[in-house]
Write a structure and sequence with these properties.
This protein has one domain. Helix content is 61%, strand content 0%. It is built from four helices and no strands.
Length: 64
Amino acid sequence: MLRFLWIATRGYRLRPWRSPYLRWRIETYWGIPAESLDFRDFWHFLWSRRRDVLRFLAWTRHLP
């Protein structure tokens, strides 16, 4: 899980809400427009969807 997060936030580790990859993931799977994501919306999304996010991160464990 941590490996995926490390790779997904490359270049944006201190500002994960600006990561194009994470924005794309959120937009694709949850329908929130990527260009509208800011700090507050990103953390609200993570908190409100924490079970889904944790399930997704658990799934990434099985990726090569």
